[in-house]
Amino acid sequence: MPSAGPAVETNSKGPRLAVCVEDLSKDYALGDERVVALANVSLNIEKGVFLALAGPSGSGKSTLLNMIGCIDTPSRGRVFINGQDVSGRTPDQLAGLRARTIGFVFQTFNLFPVLTAEENVEYPLHHVDEIGRRERRERVRHFLHVVGLTNYARHRPNQLSGGQRQRVAIARALVAHPEIVLADEPTANLDHRTGRNILRLMRRINRETKVTFIFSTHDPQVIRMADRRVDLEDGQIVRLGVRARSDWRYAFDRARDGDDA
Amino acid sequence: MRFAAIVDSAMLNFALRNLFRHTGRTALTMAAIVAGVVGLMLSGGFVRDIFAKLGESIIHSQSGHLQVSRAGFQENGSRRPEHYLIGDPARLEARIAAVPGVADVMARISFSGLLNNGRSDVAIVGEGIEPAKETRLGTSLSIIAGRRLRADDATGAMLGDGVASTLKVAPGDRVTLMLATEGGALNTLDLDVVGVFRTFSKDYDARAVKIPIAAAQEVLNTAGASTMVVSLARTQDTASIAATLGSTLAGQGLEVWTWEALNDFYAKTVKLYERQFGVLRAIILVMVLLSVANSVNMSLFERVPEFGTMRALGDPASYIVRLVLVECVLLGVIGATVGVGIGSLLSAIISYFGIAMPPPPNSDVGYTAQIALVPGIVAGAFAVGVVATGLAGIPSALRAVRMPVVDALRQAI
Amino acid sequence: MAVSAVMFGIVALMLASGFIEWIYYDLRESTIHSRLGHLQVVRPGYHRAGQSDPFAYLLPAGSAELDAIRRMPHVRSVAPRLHFSGLASHGDTTISFVGDAVDPALESDSSRSLVIEKGSALAPGDANGVLFGAGLANNLGVGIGDRVVLLVNTASGGVNAVELTVRGLFSSVTKAYDDSALRLPIATARSLLRVQGAHAWVVLLDDTRATDEIASALRSRLPAAQFEVTPWYELADFYRKTVALFSKQVDIVRIIIGAIIVLSISNTLTMVVLERTGEIGTSMALGVPRARILGQFIAEGASLGVVGGIAGVVIGTLLAWLISGIGIPMPPPPGMAHGYIGQIRITPALTASAFALAAITATVASLYPAWRASRLVIVDALRRNR
Question: Which residues contact B293 (CB under 8 A, 6 or more apart)?
Fold first, then answer.
């Protein structure tokens, strides 16, 4: 049986799906050994969800996120973004896709230290020729306001706290009006309360704008906020969950259902 | 691709700020560029100064700026000098003097013979000269004994240093000149040594003798001259005035020779030094490149995660390479500018004090070296600084963008 | 990367110095073998005043001293020479010349660096042949086989002439010489000038380095009142000045390369220290004394210099060998008639000084970064640890 479990939604790869991942595998060499990071993972992700990829370290959740973000290439299998197969595209084509469609929020914030907050937020737009100067400025102002940092526009990252930096990163991730925002352990470098505020902010944006948010995380706080969860272990999906009030309803649970589905 | 598409003001801004992130490191890198640029300016200017001084020395002790002579004389004249005589030197002199930029025109007649001091002979190459005019031209001829030839010295002679010391004669002594005239007959002329001169060339001084042109014409049985020596107001005008004279005197069987064409020694010196300087320039370029590459590579290594972020956010690989290139070129431009500034200052200081140089090979005359800065040298040094630095970062940048984005992000700073 | 900067600098220095070294060698040996010989035995004062009164400075034609010199160790040949000036005519043209009269049987060795451009050298026993300098022949308008008349003032004050046939054209290291000189058999010159004897006995050795040793041996054998021994370097003004000129230039190149090596290593080590700040802090926290940190980084800098130096020396030597095999075509330098094929000559002294430059400059460059490393405040250093 090739796949690790049925998809959450068993529809075709229509435009309702932000991301579709088909039979994805990734392995690499570590010294003389071969390490399997992902093994035949298939998954469909609807537009507008707030989804957590959960699991312990080494489970493959970051690898899966990187595949979706097109910053890593699979050993086998295919990735569909907005219904389009991205395999076989050149690195520059993927970069273009990322610029318009995908936003990133990193665990280590990854702001450019020589640029101010507003310049950092503006950064993804400088490659999108269709947007004129005036509109660029408008967007930057808007998203800085959304994340509550209007008064810090001229500050450089080293003049901002961790939480503020992550908020700048979120504004940056959104400024190009992407369809998908990917966040890899966004709260790992923040204290508990700040992390919670960041998550609430992202949740609010998700509800208001219907931008798909996909997290890779082991933080229970993040999982509590999500309305979909995908649990991974040793490179395979072991559980798929949909939020049911304050609990989860598991469409697939390997422990419960066994290896066959 | 429009220039604006290659680099825009936002990228320039970004690049500049990236450069000055670590001021200490940037300063040290620039020090290497500055050293290279300054080295090139000083050595290039030093060499140029040699050319200029050697040229002036040649002009003012041997050949003048230009010479007008019968076609074929400069190449073959020593063989049958009487074949190549200019019949009416005074008329030709007047025509040449009329050309603007010409300071003076004088006639010379050449001959070959033996100079005898009563006990031995020395082979000499002699010139009959117009003493007053030659004194004005011959500023690089230094008199080390006696005095210069004057118009009233009917049978006076100025001897080259080597001639005088070989014959062991001094001003006041008598010598006999023996030479062959047209037809092969031998003629002799008794001369009084009035002075001994020294030029930059030992070879020249070992064989040169100068007597008044009237005396030479009498012993050679002619009223003509071998060549008209032209002195100009400015050496830079040599080529243009040579061209003017060439067309003015066309069709009369005359040739106009510039001092550079007349002096094989100068041409060879220029070639030798240009070659050596070319090698030096190549060495400096590579050394600056390696040195800057070294430091740029370290910086780029640290920035690999940052480049990963940029690519994750959608920047194509070419953008990152362009950014690195712009940063390197900017670094090169700034460094080269500082280098030019310091180089110019040092040149001015060195030129003010001058460096005493020992006599080069084949000379007994030293000189005071300075640094002759010309736009060409400054531009060349500047270009080397910019090019070496500009190229330095490219291999590292290419390596950085070839890496998968995820690996770049993962690299710890 | 820093090592490659050092390496390249050392290779460049070795090739440049080696080329200059070869020029010295070639010029020295050419000068000795075409004009001067290793030593000249003359009458006292000849080189200073001899040409003003040449007939007063003659050495005997044959003598016990001459034979004694021939038997000395290292001496390859002793050849007599006469030197004089005169007029040469061919057809309607007459020009002055400087004449070197040689013994063809003995001088074939001495004239090794005299290039016979056309025709042939003087054969022993050929009493009517003459060799012309290429420039002189051109000035007179003669070629191989032409007859020329040489006219001179004799020792007794009269005039004498002889007709000779041009056997060949030569060119030497000095263009000025080729423009004015000719060579003829000493026997012919002696009868022309009406003298016996010679102006100089030109001594050729089998090894240039033996010059001083043989010179002092000769001086002790020959009475100073009658004989003066002049080594070649006292007569080779052009060579000496060439050495002076080029040595300065090589020194300047050495300074520039040294400066860039210092900057390069300094830069590298500064960054290394920066990168390893955490490690250094940890070491010092664990009790490693500051002096050891200092020593460690100086050693690192020095070893960069040593490794780069060794690599540079090895590659430089290899390249020198390769390039010399191919040869470097050079145009004629000022004062010379012909271009030449240059090579690169690496001597042990050259290698040692190049290596020393690398090692010393690298060590000096490491002093400041090493000192900075040893002065780090432990707490701050540890904080920078990831």
Answer: B391, B392, B393, B395, B396, C1
Question: Three-state SS string across C51-111, please?
Answer: HHCHHHHCECCCCHHHHHHHCCCCEEEEEEEEEEEEEEEECCEEEEEEEEEECHHHHHHHH
CA–CA dist C98, C178 (Å, integer): 10
Domain tally, chain A: 1
ipTM of the predicted structure? 0.85
| Interatomic CA distance for residues B396 and B290, integer angstroms | 12
Q: Please indicate, yes or no, if residue A217 is contained in any of the structural domains.
A: yes
* pLDDT greater than 80 at residue B171: yes
Q: Provide the pairing of β-strand A212-217 with A180-184.
A: parallel
Distance CA A242, CA C5 (A): 61
Q: How confident is the model at residue B1 (pLDDT cuts 50, 70, 90)?
A: very low
A-chain CB neighbours of B404 within 8 Å are 71-73
Q: Which of A89-98, A225-234, B282-291, C40-49 has the lowest mean pLDDT?
A: B282-291
Q: How confident is the model at residue A260 (pLDDT cuts 50, 70, 90)?
A: low
Candidates B309, B314, B404; nearest CB to A110: B309
pLDDT confidence of residue B321: 92
Q: Does A124 touch chain B (CB under 8 A)?
A: yes
Summarised one tens digit per residue, pLDDT across range A191-246 is: 888 888 989 999 999 999 999 999 998 888 888 889 999 999 999 999 999 988 88
In angstroms, how far is the first alpha carbon of chain C from the final one?
25
Distance from CA of B74 to the nearest CA of C (A): 11
The residue type at B136 = R
- The model's pTM: 0.78
Residues forming a β-bridge with B138: none
Give the single-character DSSP code of B61.
I
Contacts of B178 in chain C (CB under 8 A): 87
Is there a domain that residue B66 lies in? no
CA distances in angstroms from C88 to B44, C97, C145, listed in the order given = 46, 7, 15
Looking at the structure of chain B, the number of domains it has is: 2
Using 50 as the pLDDT threshold, list the residues of chain C that sit under it: 386
Whether residues B207 and B295 fall in one domain: no
Domain, as residue range, for B49: 3-57+267-410
Which chain B residue has its CA at the smallest distance from A70's CA? B312
B167 occurs within a structural domain:
yes
Across the interface, whether the CB atoms of B306 and A66 are under 8 A apart is answered no
The four Cα atoms B391, B392, B394, B397 give a dihedral, to 10 degrees, of -160
Sheet containing A102-105: which strands, arranged edge to edge? Answer: A102-105, A180-184, A212-217, A50-54, A228-233, A236-244, A247-253
Cα dihedral across residues A84, A89, A91, A92: positive or negative = negative
DSSP structure class, residue C34 = I
- Which residues contact residue C262 at a Cβ distance below 8 angstroms, ignoring those fewer than 6 apart? C361, C362, C364, C365
pLDDT digits (tens, 9 = 90+) for C327-354: 888 877 777 767 788 888 888 998 999 9
Which candidate, C78, C99, C103, C100, places its Cα nearest to that of C187? C103
> With contacts defined as CB-CB under 8 Å, which chain B residues touch C264?
32, 290-291, 294
Compute the nearest-CA separation of B11 from chain A (Å): 10
| Tokens coding B330 | 């900017």
Contact A114, B17 (CB under 8 A): yes
B135 inside domain: yes
